[in-house]
Amino acid sequence: MERFRLKNIIILILVLLNAFLLFSLAQRRAAERDAFHRTAEQLTALFAQDGMTLDPGAVSREAPPSGVALTRDTALEEQAAAFLLGDALSSSDQGGGIFHYAGPAGEALFRSSGGFEAAGALAEGEELEDFCRDFCKTFSYEAPEIQLNEEGGGSFTAPGVYGKLPVFNCAVTFTVEGGVLTAVSGTLLPKTGTVSPGDQPLSAAGALVAFQRMRRESAAVASTVTDVQLCYELQTAGASMSLDPAWRVVTDTEDYFVNCLTGAVTAGAARTGEGAA
Predict the structure, then answer these.
(1) What is the CA angle 114-115-117, rounded to 5?
(2) What's the rounded Cα separation, in Å, for the pair 27 and 33?
(3) Which of 51, 123, 136, 190 has CB atoms 3.0–4.6 Å from 73's, for a disulfide?
(4) Burial of 181 by CB count in 10 Å (0-12 exposed, 13-18 middle, 19+ buried)?
(5) Which of 112, 74, 256, 232 is nearest to 163 (CA)?
(6) Percent of all residues in the chain with a pLDDT value above 90, rounded to a whole number
(7) Is the distance from CB of 264 to CB of 246 less than 8 angstroms?
(8) Looking at per-residue confidence, does 50 or 240 come out higher?
(9) What is the pLDDT of residue 274?
(10) pLDDT tens digits for range 238-253
């Protein structure tokens, strides 16, 4: 009987302890939410003082990822070359980190910095658009928006993607002439990398403060911040490549990218008309 009572007492203590922990966790989360809302409201007021509109809902609560150190993947480069040029490839090392590929459809160069360019008659006719979309899907780019003129020519670009996040400073460009894909160039990212330890990255609120400071110092023309989104920023130095976490600040005139590790702000794509993204 005594053992039964002792067991019940232990169970009651554990239940009470769990209830206390859950209550403390709920209180902590509520306090964090309140602090975040206060920060968003303070940022909105700060922007309003400078004549800018900031929707508090645009301030993200997401945590930035860590930086990533990338290592060149020559097997991936050969796969991309075969996709563009055909399977019957010949290759040669040009020195200086440059590899040359030749195939039935043309030639291509791949560099240690990730940059590449291919030229020839790479695709044409009805398969051209699917060819470009398949290349982007296979080698980690966003789906391209394909718009050709009446003569079947044009140029369009697709941003790179790593870990489901878009990568600033990384893209692929397709050039079409007379219904023939004549050139593809851009940056090819390795699909895997090593996490780089570093300082605590900037939050969305910190990025907005850095953006507003830059705007004051440079008199950048923007009146509304409509969104703040996580992304990566590609860094290259010689043969080394790395990805820094960054925030994309979307305004009514231009996109700006705030590096989460350095706080540096870089202007990106300008608005070209209604519906631009």
Answers:
(1) 140
(2) 10
(3) 190
(4) buried
(5) 232
(6) 54
(7) no
(8) 240
(9) 39
(10) 778 999 999 999 988 8
Count CB-CB contacts under 10 A for residue 110.
25
Q: Is 225 helix (H, G, I), strand (E, B) or coil?
A: strand
Amino acid type, 89: L
Q: Which sign does the torsion angle of CA 195, 196, 198, 204 carry?
A: negative
Predicted pLDDT of residue 232: 96
Q: Whole-number mean pLDDT of the chain?
A: 85
Tokens matching residue 53: 């509109």
Handedness of CA 124, 129, 133, 134 (dihedral sign): negative
Summarize pLDDT for 76-101 with one digit per residue, the tens: 999 999 999 998 899 999 999 999 99
Residue 222 token pair: 């923007």
Instruction: Name 205's Cβ contacts closer than 8 Å, sequence gap at least 6.
Output: 39, 40, 43, 59
Residue 156 is predicted with a pLDDT of 94
> Is residue 151 over pLDDT 90?
no
The model's pTM is: 0.80
Structure tokens at 107: 């030639």
Alpha-carbon distance of 114 to 172, in angstroms, equals: 11
Position 181, amino acid: L
> Which regions of the chain does DSSP assign to beta strands (E)?
53-54, 67-70, 90-95, 98-103, 106-111, 115-124, 154-162, 165-177, 180-187, 193-196, 224-237, 240-251, 254-259, 265-270
Residue 199, burial from CB neighbour count under 10 angstroms (0-12, 13-18, 19+)? exposed
Residues 6 or more apart whose CB falls under 8 angstroms from that of 30 comprise: none
Give the helix/strand (H/E) hosting 149: none
The tokens of 49 are what? 């003082």
Q: How confident is the model at residue 7 (pLDDT cuts 50, 70, 90)?
A: low
Give yes or no for a contact between 41 and 56, defined as CB atoms under 8 angstroms apart. yes
Distance, in Å, from the CA atom of 248 to the CA atom of 257, rounded to the nearest integer, reads 5
